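Kindly inspect the following:
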Amino acid sequence: MGSVLTPEQMPDAVIATLNKLNKGKWIGEMTDLQEHVGFNQICKKKKEKQKSGRGITLRYVMDQNHSAQHVGLFNTIDYARDDTMVEGTVPWTYTDGHMIYDEREPAMNAGPEEIVDLVSMERSRMLTSMVELSESDVWGIPSSESDNDTPFGAEYWITKAATLGFNGVNPTGFSSGRAGISSTTYARHKNFTGAYTDVSDTTDTGLVYQMEMAADKTRWVAPSPEPGMGRKGYSRGVFCNWETKYALKNVAKDNNDSLGFDLSTQEPVFRGAKIQYVPYFDSKADKPLYMIDFNHFYATFLRDWFMKNIKVNRLPNQPHCFAVICSMVWNICCDDLRRQAVFYEA
């Protein structure tokens, strides 16, 4: 006969099995999204960690000193210096999910192996909820400038405008700008954007034409050494809904591989970057396409606070119940707007 767990032993047993569940197989149909691309790419694969601090600081030098000049012999120089460094602040946001169980449930009275089925299901439901919310956070925007709870997603950092070029200014309703730095005050502090009418590459309203322009114009090379704020070694990504991806795939075929169609995988690529289908975008009427440089667009987590499991021994108002909380302390950063692009259908 298997050993019986006491109520005091249950929380530790649950925590101990959270990462070792391999019994009680089942299929989940808990979400309408085929894949959570934003969470997997931004939060999971390409995340950063910060040891401490009340938030994340981004620093920009907004202008050169304009001191260079052509001079003659014995010239005089008027020395001057102004302050061009600007700091932006990205606050921490806090995301919690939870699972709960009752010590009296029959499946939890016969030992740790019987616990597995229940905990596996409840843990998956909790994590799915966390991932689903985070997916909308990655691509979304806080409801207003006073919303301190929602992370800064792609719609916040990479803004849309109809005129092709570096015209991605402050998000609507955020007069102080992104991370407190206004594109009205600093004219270079903008992302690339444009509105397309079709996916062609022959006119300036064609999506491929705009992508080609963005790919060239968002590749900045510093004329002198600078430490930068971003990372190195990460690729670029192209993200859109299924309809746009399919249309680009057909452009690649029709143009005889000029877009970089990869026959080995049957996936369209653009300048080496796979064009990825984002199910979350299927609900967006304007069919956005994002070109993201992951060296400069990433989620930052307070150290040890990515999907952290926290044990709660016993719920005060439910004396027979125990809970496990999954928690994240994080936000999304873009430390170089000029390397990012977004397009939408007009």
Observations:
- DSSP finds six helices and 14 strands in the chain.
- The chain has a mean pLDDT of 85.
